[in-house]
């Protein structure tokens, strides 16, 4: 310990020798930065020769489409390109010169449709995109194309990222698509404004001000998530309260959904399984009871009347005091499927968490209990149910084996839950780079169908031909000015999105 202390002291003196004491000199090289703009700062390119080349290659932008997401693409291009090029950039209704950035989707862009890329774009799917150097209307242009506006938005962020990182935009031929259908951020935020396992201040959702006052921070949140490919957000804690689906509060949820929708992000809510009782309407929450089913039917219809693209429910049942179907002698599959059948009418999903323990009749070893509960139910869950399992069988430990639910349920859509917020890795007081640990999880070989049956192949649906695929990350975002409390926390949020 004494030797380690001496080494740390020496390192401190070395680092101090590099400190520039003069504030003016320091400001010349390190501009003020409070962290709010995250990785979307768009500072002007400082290498003169490269800046001149970018200005030659980027002279105007043309965005075809009139959807909310098309509007977001226009705003981001104007903000990003004007900042990076250090001068205003013109939006044009048509291509007028070399260097145009042309963005659009097959569904609403005649320019994109004229390129003959239909088959390739359809292969890339709803969220995939292509960025290519091409010739259109007799001009050399850069094209960002997708089958959908959402994919075009992702391509827009990719091009802006290339310029911000001083990469070449000559002779581009990029094709990309997400590995997972659902790329989720799970907030553990409470109605009171507190956050369970939150280390960056209170919740960003100001429930007392909504829906009358919608913070501009919500759009910046949406921009940040869309830029790294996240397409879904569970707004509240898995240890849920009824407040979030109470009729009087649905306009508040809808106000947030209206902002996130512009960036291709669907809103989800965590629910308590005993909501029919909490509402005061019923004395039971038995998922097989006709009155309970009707209650949920009415409630779900009501939610969709406010939020037409509502994503669905996240459910933590029969765990850590949260009620579930076992209380009524029903299985988790029966509980999940009751909700799934109703949500299916609206193209909604049930994300059923596999974090279950303390159930009577199971092994005394807590690490075995989730597998013992869910393995016998393999194949019994509805198609629009995803079983969300933490990477380990205990509880986000720094080191633990893989949860056997992943790879052990070949007939059930299975998603992976990671924890971005640092519950067991210093609670954001300590710096901790989480990406290597997550990569190790993704690459772990379950041997479910022999060698090469990695976790990634399970959760992206390819190993067992699952209908749906998902990755969920427990958010580390709070009301702190820099969102995550410290810069490396931002990097973990960014890295999670890129991995997903």
TrEMBL record:
SUPFAM superfamilies given in the database record: (Trans)glycosidases, beta-N-acetylhexosaminidase-like domain
Report domain Alpha glucuronidase N-terminal positions. 38-159
Q: Which UniProt keywords apply?
A: Hydrolase
Q: Extract the Pfam families matched here.
A: Glyco_hydro_67M, Glyco_hydro_67N
Q: Which InterPro entries match?
A: GH (IPR017853), Glyco_hydro_67_aGlcAse_N (IPR005154), Glyco_hydro_67_cat (IPR011100), Hex-like_dom2 (IPR029018)
Q: Which Gene3D superfamilies match?
A: Chitobiase/beta-hexosaminidase domain 2-like, Glycosidases
Q: Where would I find the Glycosyl hydrolase family 67 catalytic domain in this sequence?
A: 163-483
The membrane-spanning stretches of this chain are: none
State the name under which the record lists this protein.
Uncharacterized protein
Query: Taxonomic lineage of this organism?
Result: Bacteria, Bacillati, Bacillota, Bacilli, Bacillales
């Amino acid at each position: 310990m004494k030797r380690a202390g001496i080494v740390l002291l020496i390192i401190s003196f070395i680092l101090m020798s590099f400190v520039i004491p003069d504030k003016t000199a320091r400001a010349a090289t390190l501009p003020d930065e409070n962290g709010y703009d995250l990785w979307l700062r768009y500072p002007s390119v400082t290498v003169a020769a490269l800046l001149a080349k970018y200005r030659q290659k980027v002279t105007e932008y043309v965005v075809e489409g009139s959807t909310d997401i098309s509007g977001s693409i226009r705003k981001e291009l104007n903000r990003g390109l004007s900042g990076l090029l250090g001068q205003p950039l013109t939006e044009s209704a048509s291509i007028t010169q070399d260097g145009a950035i042309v963005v659009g989707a097959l569904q609403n862009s005649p320019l994109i449709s004229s390129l003959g890329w239909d088959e390739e774009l359809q292969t890339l799917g709803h969220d995939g995109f292509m960025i290519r150097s091409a010739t259109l209307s007799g001009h050399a242009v850069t094209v960002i194309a997708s089958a959908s506006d959402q994919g075009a938005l992702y391509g827009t962020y990719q091009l802006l990222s290339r310029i911000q990182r001083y990469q070449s935009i000559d002779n581009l031929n990029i094709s990309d698509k997400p590995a997972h259908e659902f790329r989720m951020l799970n907030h553990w935020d409470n109605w009171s404004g507190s956050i369970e396992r939150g280390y960056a201040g209170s919740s960003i959702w100001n429930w007392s001000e909504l829906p009358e006052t919608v913070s501009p921070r919500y759009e910046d949140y949406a921009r940040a998530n869309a830029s790294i490919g996240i397409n879904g957000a569970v707004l509240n804690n898995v240890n849920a309260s009824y407040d979030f689906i109470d009729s009087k509060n649905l306009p508040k949820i809808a106000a947030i959904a209206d902002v996130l929708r512009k960036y291709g992000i669907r809103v989800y809510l965590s629910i308590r399984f005993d909501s029919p009782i909490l509402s005061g309407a019923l004395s039971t929450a038995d998922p097989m009871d006709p009155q309970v089913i009707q209650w949920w039917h009415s409630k779900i219809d009501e939610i969709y009347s406010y939020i037409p693209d509502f994503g669905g429910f996240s459910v933590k049942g029969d765990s850590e005091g949260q009620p579930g179907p076992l209380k009524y002698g029903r299985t988790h599959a029966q509980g999940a499927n009751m909700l799934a059948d109703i949500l299916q009418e609206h193209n909604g999903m049930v994300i059923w968490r596999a974090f279950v323990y303390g159930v009577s009749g199971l092994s005394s070893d807590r690490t075995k209990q989730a597998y013992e509960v869910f393995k016998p139910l393999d194949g019994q869950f509805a198609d629009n149910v995803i079983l969300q399992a933490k990477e380990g069988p205990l509880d986000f430990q720094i080191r633990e084996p893989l949860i056997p639910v992943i790879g052990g349920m070949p007939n059930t859509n299975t998603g992976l839950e990671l924890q971005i917020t640092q519950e067991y890795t210093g609670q954001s007081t300590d710096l901790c780079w989480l990406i290597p640990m997550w990569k190790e999880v993704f690459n772990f070989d379950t041997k479910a169908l022999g060698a090469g049956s990695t976790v990634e192949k399970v959760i992206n649906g390819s190993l067992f031909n699952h209908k749906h695929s998902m990755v969920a990350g427990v958010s580390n975002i709070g009301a702190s000015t820099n969102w995550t409390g410290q810069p490396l926390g931002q990097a973990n949020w960014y890295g999670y999105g890129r991995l997903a």
